[in-house]
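Trying the structure run again after the queue cleared.
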Amino acid sequence: MSGGARRRTDRVLAPVRIRVTGKDASGAGFVEETVSVSFNQQGARISLTHTLRPDDVILIENLESGIEAGFRVLHSFAEVFGDRREWGVEALDLESPIWGIEFWNFPEGVRPKVLIECAGCKKAVQSTLSGIEYDVLLSTGLISRHCERCGETTRWKPSDQHLQPKGGAANQMVAGASGPQRGARRLQLAMCLRVRTGRGAPETSQTRDVSKSGLCLFTSNSYRVGEEVYVTLPYADQRAPVETRGRIVWAATAPGGRYVGVKYENE
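Done. Tokens:
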């Protein structure tokens, strides 16, 4: 790949509905609707009934978004079933938004933890996530990984069990303190963040849960409902802060501190 010096992003196991347009091994044109097996910023693994030729260029369209991008055929994998085979393809444009995901990696030493459970056997584990797994879980609510109990790769989703915040505080909230239920998917996820306001020094704290629209954090400081805050998530000392503007929408007393709800402000 021409961008060999670029750090590779993690591969996502996800069945995205796609339409593939290209030429088969005989040179005849074809159009086939299928699904992705996995993908990352550099390429994808797709399942097809048509046979491809290495180095040929094909077009892949995400049927959910309508975004299309070019890919170069690399090689084939073993037959999956019948006449269907999986193929590895390389992205021609690394900046294409075809998969609907912003590819990035957490800084070294920053690995968020989330409580997830196997959709098959219901086994729950508190697992660290890569940057792309974190984004996929927030977007779709599911990731794929190997389950030792099931003995195979299964779908995993956020568990309904509760995480224990750092500092020994019980993970409890005052009934009704979170206000109206939000439509965004929320993950019980403990990771380091930085919060600052216009009236004091920044605070390094920890999330209780996160979503695309906001988060809940555990703190010993006092924040006012309606107050504007600036959040850096994830936060690492060696990384230049990238802040998101938000507003405090609720607060609740908890053993050892307070839970505070932050809603991101639309820029």
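Confidence is low (pLDDT under 50) at residues 1-7, 161-182. Worth checking whether this holds up in the mutant runs.
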